[in-house]
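Section 5.1 Outputs to date
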Amino acid sequence: MLTATPVGAAPCCAPSFHLRPARRCGAARIARRAIRENPQNVPEVAVVPTPALTAREAVEAQMRAISRNDEPWTNHGIATMYEFCYDAGSMERSRFFGFSKDLYHLDHFMGGLGHYCGELIDCASYEIGPERAVQGSPGGGPGSPDGPGPGPGHVSFEVAVTPRGGGEAPAVFVFSLERQEWGLRRGAWQTKSLLRAERGA
């Protein structure tokens, strides 16, 4: 048997019908805290990828932010690196860390960066090496076996990092950058992969 709910009346399944006022306030407090503590609810990062930045300036912006990760707000450095990630927010899987991984959400990127490139976060110092032309694209496309020959939009930089605290040995990472081909960042240099340099390479 169907019954009609009078106009303006709250349906019996509405949360406010079942919760006493004190519990409703508690639920609202939890919701506000969850919104505030969600790592994706943050302001815009200080520097975003634009076609005006050179490839070196793109790496410098990322390293400047990640070396002071929590300035001006918590995980600002990681969020900056996510903005510069070529495959950030894509439904396609990325090889940013050298293997297939979903980088659709910032928190997926946070976990990978902290685990595979942790020395970058709050490092004591860093040195960016010279720009090198890349003969192949790490993710397919121009310069890869699947695409046409190398173009002017593929470069890499080695970055030597001294971790904070001095207990760990210096680490070297290779930033491989490509010019973005799609969307709002079209024409901007973004990091296609960030890999630890092989010893003796």
